[in-house]
Amino acid sequence: MQEFHKIRRLPPYVFEQVNRLKASARARGCDIIDLGMGNPDLPTPQIIVDKLCEAVQDPRTHRYSSSKGIPGLRRAQAAYYERRFGVKLDPDSQVVATLGSKEGFANMAQAITAPGDVVLVPNPTYPIHSFGFIMSGGVVRSITADPDDNFIEHLDRAVQHSTPKPTALILNYPSNPTAQLATLEFYKEVVAYAKKHNIIILSDLAYAEIYFDETPPPSILQVPGAIDIAVEFTSMSKTFSMPGWRMGFAVGNERLIAALTRVKSYLDYGAFTPIQVATAAALNGSDECITAARETYRRRRDVMVETFANAGWDVPSPPATMFAWAPIPEKFKHLGSLEFSKLMIEKTEIAVAPGIGFGEYGDDYVRIALVENQQRIRQAARNLRKFLASEDESRHNVVQFSARR
Questions:
Q1: pTM for the complete prediction?
Q2: Is 143 helix (H, G, I), strand (E, B) or coil?
Q3: Could you say which of 20, 124, 277, 307 has the lowest number of CB atoms within 10 Å?
């Protein structure tokens, strides 16, 4: 039987192949150190959990909620944007709650995409940035993911050679998977270009609070006039260690927010009200838990970079996010990222995410998630060292045998 049209348009989900191997290895009793999926392991701060427990005692919160988010939650997000970025938002018309940033992107794609619309998407990037538009009938054109001096040149080339002209541009900084950062000056240039060519900008800022340099990542909405064309997506998953709670936001241009709100109104009744109440408390509360999570990821990053280098794999130190974007060691580069990831599970009991899953230009890399504690990261490094040493010895023996012949 033939696959349904939308399913046929989707490429194979390569992460599933790694997940199957991981599950099979665990079934055999292997102790897999999972640095693959970006699934935060830190507990949700107790103050947020306590607020949830308090709110759930009120039977009125057990009824259908508001798809766009309860008023107090939207006000809390607007207040966060004003504190953090100096951006003033109308909580009634410029803020909508989403079931995480992933759902927000997918439903925004449905809201704004006509069949055949061209959307400019960084490559490599988080999969929903592409798949949301593919499932909505759009056409994805890859652009560079590097926010450098050549970005506008690459962007202009893509615009000039796209038919029809692109309707939207996706940005994601701090980037998942590459961990790259963008500056406010970069955003200013991109906003000016997008306005000139009548292009909508959708910015994914899910990692706004996971950064390790002194300067916090900016919001594109800090650019004067950006709100005329831009919507930004944020998530509670990483900032407050709330991945399973499924809470996020879209903020920005009123017309785009209204379109997303309308689509969502047909599809969901919003998150469980106590979750929304607890989320509002998190946004209105102290930044201590954010700072603590950031420092935990910083320590894990430093341990991973040091111990993996000592084991024989030099991994660039990420300036932000909870990921390292690691070039495959030269001796294994010929395998490609998927086969290398499979080899890592088999030989080192370490799971990583193959770069090909983020786009074809990611195939020389794997993504390493900082979602295990420092002890487990050191254990991973010991496993890695044994494997690389055995590989070097095996290659040495092959060379010696060939020389004797």
A1: 0.93
A2: strand
A3: 20
Domain ranges, ordered by start, for the chain: 5-43+289-404, 46-284
CATH topology of domain 46-284: Aspartate Aminotransferase; domain 2 (3.40.640)
Q: Which residues of the chain have pLDDT under 70?
A: 1, 12, 392-405
Structurally, what CATH architecture does the domain formed by 5-43+289-404 represent? Alpha-Beta Complex (3.90)
Q: Which of 218, 212, 155 is nearest to 184 (CA)?
A: 218
So what's the pLDDT on residue 96?
Answer: 98
Distance CA 325, CA 362 (A): 9
- Label residue 196 left, alpha or beta by phi (over 0 means left) and psi (-120 to 50 means alpha): alpha
For residue 6, report the phi and psi dihedrals to the nearest 5 degrees. Answer: -65, -35
Cα(354)–Cα(89) distance, rounded to whole angstroms?
38
Please give the mean pLDDT across all residues of the chain.
93
Residue 322 contacts residue 299 (beta carbons within 8 Å): no
- Output the CA–CA distances (angstroms, integers) from residue 138 to 98, 118, 120, 133, in the order listed: 22, 6, 10, 5
Q: How far apart are CA 390 and CA 180, in angstroms?
A: 34
Cα atoms in the Cβ-side hemisphere of radius 13 Å centred on 143: 29
The residues near 263 (Cβ < 8 Å, ≥ 6 apart) are 107, 108, 110, 111
Structure confidence at residue 364 (pLDDT): 97
Strand order of the β-sheet with 365-369 is: 323-327, 365-369, 353-354
Q: What does 306-373 look like in DSSP terms, one character per residue?
A: HHHHHHT---PPPSBSSEEEEEPPGGGGGGHHHHHHHHHHHHH-EE-EEGGGG-GGGTTEEEEE--S-
Dihedral of CA 327/333/335/340: which sign? negative
Of 201, 188, 241, 291, whose CA–CA distance to 42 is shortest? 241
Q: How many CB atoms lie within 10 A of CB 238?
A: 25
Q: DSSP 3-state helix, strand, coil percentages of the chain (rounded to 5)? A: 55, 15, 35
